[in-house]
């Protein structure tokens, strides 16, 4: 007996890497939701249980992607094996994160909302119980901390394997090296936009991008914004790839676009007469 997912037509090979990039987005969304869990709130136990369900959904999504990739007529190669293994690992890590979050729920229900609301917590039962809950929350976060990066790497390995086996063709979509790096950063959830006093700027942990780059990607329909946390008046928006953006990035994965013209400084230098 086949499941509904098995009865669907195989995923076109050229869309397979973009499909993996969608998994990276789902990891980022899960981690943003997880970061809002605060033990002092009355609803924290039910929120922990909801996050456990989200972790299970993430594991199911990784399993579904793995199934779809398995339908692509791809010969086994080191790159293909690496891509498959990374997705399988993400599936396992998400499932384990769900188990840890259910333990967070189990510990939180042992402490009344009134006891959790007053900090600092006194030494003893309340503090010890919440420390145990905190350890499991940290484990859930740690297990998924590299999930988006691993999904991007899996998509890169898969794109390279497909090109090597001549299962995809055509030219990659035109973009600058800066746009390519921004798309990669967005794919791993590392690029956000902050809005304050009518101004906005793009920021990330290990590099900076101009808002001009972000707007150029938005104008091409490759990027969308969503509030990083579901709070009224949230000032930080996470950048995500649209379907068109995932396809555009996937067309370049494993190879880096070059500038369409040499830098102005190099051009001037080449015109300087030798002495």
Written account of the structure:
By secondary structure, this protein is α+β, with helices and mostly antiparallel strands. It is 58% helix and 8% strand. The protein has 11 helices and 4 strands; from the N terminus they run H-H-H-H-H-H-H-H-E-E-H-E-E-H-H. It has helices spanning 4-7, 16-34, 44-70, 78-108, 113-117, 125-143, 147-164, 177-187, 211-219, 243-250, 264-271, and strands at residues 192-196, 199-203, 223-227, 236-241. The chain has a 4-stranded antiparallel β-sheet with strand order 2-1-4-3. Strand 1 and strand 2 form a beta hairpin. Helix 3 packs antiparallel against helix 4 and helix 4 packs antiparallel against helix 7 (147-164). The longest helix is centred in the middle third of the chain and has 31 residues, at 78-108. The N and C termini lie far apart (81 Å).
What's the assembly state of these chains?
single chain
Runs with pLDDT <50, length 5+?
A: 1-5, 264-275
Structural class estimated from helices and strands: alpha+beta
Mean pLDDT: 87
Q: What strand order characterises the main sheet?
A: 2-1-4-3
- Order of SSEs: HHHHHHHHEEHEEHH
Helix content: 55-70%
Number of strands: 4
Number of helices: 11
Beta-strand content estimate: 5-15%
**Spatial gap, N to C terminus:** 81 Å
Judging from the principal axes of the Cα atoms, what is the shape?
flat
Query: What would you report as the Rg, rounded to the nearest angstrom?
Result: 22 Å
Sketch the major β-sheet: 4 strands, antiparallel
């Amino acid at each position: 007996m086949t499941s509904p997912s098995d009865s669907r037509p195989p995923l076109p090979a050229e869309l397979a890497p973009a499909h993996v990039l969608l998994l990276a987005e789902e990891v980022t969304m899960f981690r943003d939701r997880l970061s809002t869990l605060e033990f002092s709130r009355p609803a924290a136990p039910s929120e922990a249980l909801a996050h456990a369900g989200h972790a299970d959904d993430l594991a199911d999504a990784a399993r579904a992607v793995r199934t779809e990739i398995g339908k692509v007529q791809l010969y086994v190669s080191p790159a293909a094996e690496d891509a498959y293994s990374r997705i399988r690992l993400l599936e396992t890590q998400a499932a384990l994160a769900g188990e840890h979050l259910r333990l967070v729920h189990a510990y939180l229900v042992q402490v009344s909302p009134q006891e959790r609301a007053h900090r600092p917590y006194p030494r003893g039962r309340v503090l010890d119980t919440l420390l145990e809950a905190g350890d499991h929350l940290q484990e859930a976060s740690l297990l998924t901390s590299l999930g988006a990066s691993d999904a991007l790497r899996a998509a890169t390995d898969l794109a390279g394997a497909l090109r090597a086996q001549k299962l995809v063709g055509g030219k990659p979509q035109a973009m600058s090296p800066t746009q390519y790096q921004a798309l990669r950063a967005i794919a791993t959830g590392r690029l956000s936009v902050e809005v304050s006093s009518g101004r906005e700027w793009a920021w990330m942990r290990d590099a900076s991008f101009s808002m001009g780059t972000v707007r150029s990607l938005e104008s091409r329909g490759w990027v969308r914004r969503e509030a990083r946390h579901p709070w009224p008046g949230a000032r930080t928006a996470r950048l995500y790839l649209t379907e068109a953006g995932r396809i555009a990035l996937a067309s370049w994965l494993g190879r880096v676009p070059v500038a369409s013209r040499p830098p102005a400084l190099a051009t001037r230098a080449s015109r300087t007469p030798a002495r």
